[in-house]
Structures are given as structure tokens and as C-alpha cells.
Amino acid sequence: DAKTTQPPSMDCAEGRAANLPCNHSTISGNEYVYWYRQIHSQGPQYIIHGLKNNETNEMASLIITEDRKSSTLILPHATLRDTAVYYCIVEGGNQFYFGTGTSLTVIP
Amino acid sequence: ETGVTQTPRHLVMGMTNKKSLKCEQHLGHNAMYWYKQSAKKPLELMFVYSLEERVENNSVPSRFSPECPNSSHLFLHLHTLQPEDSALYLCASSHLSGEREKLFFGSGTQLSVL
Fold first, then answer.
1. DSSP string, chain A
2. What is the pLDDT of residues B57-89, one digit of tens each?
3. How far lies B31's CA from each of A15, B82, B111, in Å?
């Protein structure tokens, strides 16, 4: 599985957009990019996934670069409840391997 | 509520005890997973069951013994554990098909080995 690189931590002001980057330069053509988040001591929660095109759902938007070597998760209006660890995962063959993620803190 | 229920939420056991963790999914999925999350470390995939058959075993010590009696239930039997086995144990399920399917996680069992 391709590895991902994420900044260890980020801060975001409440009500502003949170942009979380992820590098996956070794991604192969059939591997999807998934994002999950984990609030302290709970199980990870699915956010969004995509292959090539940008995706949007009720939680977030996913922007994937044209060469697919990086992506950005966008939380359009961050709230205090969005404080969590966010994991970017490149998945192939239904195996999910989690890295260390980005710890996002939303500041009042 | 994710549709994946894990019991117990917390467990304290001695190194000579035998205990079991239970996971139940109400989502009609056909694959189930055990992950281990130690403090400040990434989630580690331990076991994968697809259609009740084990398809992945990531070099997990034999003191961890999984069991999948049907597609809705998954157990992790524990015996003679070590203090370094203290961690959050997470169960997940998904539907394996030609399409990519996401994982649904339970809330986990926080295990402390004394």
C-alpha cells in the first residue's frame, strides 16, 4: 500500500475553513484516497473518499491534484466538535492502513 | 451509533487471566476486522475476516486468538497477555464487493493488562 504523509498537528479558528493536506506520491492508479477522523478514545469515523475527481458530501470536500500525488480535506466551517485526529489513507484491495494522522484543534 | 457494537468498553486483566472481547455488527456486512491502537501510535491491523474466513493475520502473537462464528459476530480471545498489550482494541466491518466500501468502527475496548 502507498504511504501517506501528513503534518502532525494544525490549528483552525472556529467558523473558518480547515484545510488538511496529505501527500501520497507513490499512489497507484487503482488506489483510492480515504479520510477518517478519530475523536479521543473512540473508533475512527469515515469522512469521504475519492479516486480522481473532487468529492463533496455533508461533512467535507476532498480535493485531489491532477497527478493524484496529494490531496486536501476541507472542512468548510470548522466547529469545536471537529477537534480530532484526521487520517489520510490510500487504500487498495480493501486493506486500510492508518498512519499517525493530523491532530486538528479548533480554537474558539 | 455506527452499527458496530463492542463489549466490554473497558477491561482490566492480569497476565494470567483469560478474557474475550466481543464485536457485533448490524449492517449486513461480510467482512470484519480487529485493530490495535497503542498510546500515541497508529492503528495496527491485526486480523481480517472475509465471509467468516480469516484472510489476514499480521504477525500477531498467538496469545491473541480471533474467532468469527458468523458474519455478524467477531471475538478476540485473550490469554497470558503482557503489559505492553494494553491498548484500545477496535473492531470494524465493511462490505467487500467490486466497489470500494468504507469501514465502520465500533467504539473500542480499552484494555489494561496489569
1. ----B--SEEEEETTSPEEEEEE-TT--TTPEEEEEEE-TTS--EEEEEESSS-EE-SS-EEEE-TTSSEEEEEESS--GGG-EEEEEEEEBTTB------EEEEEE-
2. 778 999 999 999 999 999 999 999 999 999 999
3. 38, 28, 24
Contact A49, A38 (CB under 8 A): no
Return the bridge partners of B22, or none.
B7, B75
Beta bridge partners, B79, equal: B18
The one-letter code for the residue type at B84 is E
Half-sphere exposure of A31 (CA within 13 A, CB side): 22
Say if the Cβ atoms of A98 and B42 lie within 8 Å: yes
Out of B100, B108, B110, closest to residue A91 by CB = B100
**Half-sphere exposure for B112 (CA within 13 Å, toward CB):** 5
β-pairing verdict for B109-113 and B10-13: parallel
Residue A93 above 70 pLDDT? Answer: no
CB contact under 8 A, B100 and A95: no
Alpha carbon distance B46, A47 (integer Å): 23
What is d(CA B34, CA A68) in angstroms, rounded to the nearest whole number? 30
Query: Which residue, among A40, A94, A100, would best test binding to B if mutated, counting the most B CBs under 10 Å from its CB?
Result: A94
